[in-house]
């Protein structure tokens, strides 16, 4: 059993927490702290449960977002039952793709293939992308499984009223913020009812897995027919998705694919394979085609767009083990957009992306890489290069340095960071010094940032600034651990940070995090 409480806040005062003035009376309704309370427990070999309560800074109550589940597993016909919140990972993600996905990465073999994981209990603080109801998996035979689910939950949305006085859906609101009267008015505006299931067949005589998937979704508000580049997109309030997916290992080749259909001739397809060409060389490819009107609320296949629509592409990846210590990983991805898209009026535009990373490792003492990435899209070239090194001086000390640069047009943005980590006994201390200098947000650089345990942060480093970070974690005893984080960014190119109600008057921003965890074995 583990119970965790985390709170964080910004030391400087944001405009949303000040008194109203003559220009604007809108302010946040709650205090300045983010708070998270999470419990996860394994009650016995077959039963586990969890819940989460969470509020964002400016929201009123810790229960602003609540989530929970009870999961039962057995070795009988009823293999798994989840009551509460859950996600599904089916096929290659064209109909159901729950959970975190990195998409394209230097790990080109992993990027091209997903694994069918079925129903998974949900306990994240992300306030969208999950179901609420019941999820059951039945094992009828060794070669035959059936999964089915039903969900009913409320969604945040903005609405409009047409000329006949009927309400319709303008946009789904997925940021989870309920800090002002306007944001609160969007809460739970639309109801979503969903039901679906799949049949998984794996003949005993062949290493083949075939999966048929179907999902029915009903929204209480209709989505109107779009205008401009959105005209081909799905409209209405009832949606039926179907797909057929497979996995087929043929000697040393693992082939996977999925064909999905959402009605009115709208379909998507993914087909990929990965293989070892020799002891040192691995290769993979992924072909994808997404119709302009294809839509599934929970799809997340590999894509250049943020949604799986209006795209055709071919991804090719190679990984070569030069020797025991060095490896070269590369991919090239070509993509084409048959129809117009956001801020692009023309049809049949195209682009490509090339990445190559040379990494090396000296066991237990050092590792590093050099990486280059070139993206061309809409007649613009984005060049990025990264140098990274880890050095472990002695058991307790770890030094990490990274240099990154991004170039688009005549703009060049830089990021230099130095990490020092000390891990000794009950103490773990991490520090970071980062210098960034980017002419605009277009030349931003991304880098993983140290945080308290069980947290993940991948911020964009942009502007001209220095950022310092300190994280301290202490294992009090076998059950209790505590952690704290202090992070300050000092800008040299602005006198105001942020915008609207998140604006801070000044050029410094300080974020503080405190966390306590109790774990009972």
Topology, element by element:
Elements: E1 2-10, E2 33-42, E3 47-55, E4 65-73, E5 78-89, H1 108-111, E6 118-121, E7 131-141, E8 144-155, E9 157-161, E10 167-172, H2 181-185, E11 190-201, E12 209-223, E13 236-250, E14 253-261, E15 267-276, E16 281-290, E17 311-321, E18 326-337, E19 349-362, E20 366-377, E21 380-391, E22 397-408, E23 411-424, E24 427-437, E25 445-446, E26 460-461, E27 464-475, E28 480-491, E29 496-497, E30 504-505, E31 508-519
Antiparallel strand pairs: 1-2, 1-31, 2-3, 3-4, 4-5, 5-6, 5-7, 7-8, 8-11, 9-10, 11-12, 12-13, 13-14, 14-15, 15-16, 16-17, 17-18, 18-19, 19-20, 20-21, 21-22, 22-23, 23-24, 24-27, 25-26, 27-28, 28-31, 29-30
Structure characterization notes:
- It is built from two helices and 31 strands.
- Strand 23 and strand 24 (427-437) form a beta hairpin.
- Helices cover 2% and strands 58% of the residues.
- The protein has a 24-stranded antiparallel beta barrel. Strands 9-10 form a two-stranded antiparallel sheet. Strands 25-26 form a two-stranded antiparallel sheet.
- The protein has 521 residues and is mainly β.
């Amino acid at each position: 059993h583990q119970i965790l409480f985390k709170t964080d806040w910004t030391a400087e005062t944001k405009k949303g927490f000040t008194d109203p003035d003559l220009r604007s009376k809108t302010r946040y309704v709650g205090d300045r702290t983010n708070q998270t309370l999470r419990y996860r427990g394994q009650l016995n070999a077959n039963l586990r449960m969890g819940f989460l309560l969470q509020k964002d800074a400016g929201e009123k109550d810790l229960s602003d977002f609540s989530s929970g589940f009870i999961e039962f597993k057995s070795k009988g016909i009823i293999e798994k039952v989840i009551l509460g919140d859950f996600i599904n990972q089916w096929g290659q993600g064209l109909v159901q793709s729950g959970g975190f996905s990195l998409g394209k990465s230097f790990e080109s073999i992993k990027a091209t293939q997903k694994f069918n994981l079925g129903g998974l209990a949900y306990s994240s603080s992300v306030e969208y992308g999950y179901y609420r109801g019941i999820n059951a998996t039945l094992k009828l035979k060794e070669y035959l499984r059936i999964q089915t689910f039903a969900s009913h939950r409320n969604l945040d949305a903005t609405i409009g009223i047409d000329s006949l006085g009927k309400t319709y859906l303008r946009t789904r609101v997925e940021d989870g913020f309920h800090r002002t009267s306007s944001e609160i008015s969007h809460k739970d505006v639309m109801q979503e009812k969903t039901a679906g299931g799949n049949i998984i067949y794996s003949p005993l005589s062949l290493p083949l897995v075939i999966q048929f998937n179907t999902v029915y979704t009903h929204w209480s508000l209709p989505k109107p027919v779009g205008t401009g580049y959105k005209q081909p997109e799905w409209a209405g309030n009832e949606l039926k998705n179907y797909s057929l997916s497979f996995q087929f290992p043929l000697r040393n080749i693992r082939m996977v694919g999925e064909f999905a259909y959402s009605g009115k001739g709208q379909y998507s397809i993914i087909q990929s394979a990965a293989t070892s060409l020799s002891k040192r060389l691995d290769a993979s490819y992924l072909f994808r085609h997404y119709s302009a009107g294809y839509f599934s609320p929970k799809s997340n296949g590999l894509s250049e767009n943020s949604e799986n629509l209006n795209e055709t592409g071919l991804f090719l990846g190679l990984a070569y083990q030069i020797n025991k210590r060095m490896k070269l990983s590369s991919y090239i991805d070509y993509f084409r957009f048959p129809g117009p898209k956001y801020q692009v009026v023309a049809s049949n535009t195209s682009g490509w992306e090339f990445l190559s990373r040379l990494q090396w490792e000296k066991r237990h003492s050092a590792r590093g890489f050099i990486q280059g990435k070139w993206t061309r899209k809409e007649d613009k070239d984005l060049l990025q290069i990264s140098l990274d090194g880890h050095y472990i001086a002695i058991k307790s000390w770890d030094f990490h340095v990274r240099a990154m640069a991004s170039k688009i047009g005549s703009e060049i943005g830089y990021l230099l960071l130095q990490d020092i980590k000390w891990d000794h006994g009950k103490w773990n201390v991490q520090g970071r010094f980062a210098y960034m200098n980017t002419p605009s947000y277009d030349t931003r650089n991304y880098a993983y940032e140290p945080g308290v345990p069980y947290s993940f942060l991948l911020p964009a480093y942009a502007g001209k600034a220095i950022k310092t970070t300190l994280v301290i974690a202490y294992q009090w005893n076998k059950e209790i651990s505590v952690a704290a984080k202090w992070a300050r960014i000092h800008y040299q190119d602005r006198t105001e940070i942020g915008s609207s109600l998140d604006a801070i008057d000044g050029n410094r921003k300080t974020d503080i995090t405190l966390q306590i965890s109790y774990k009972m074995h």
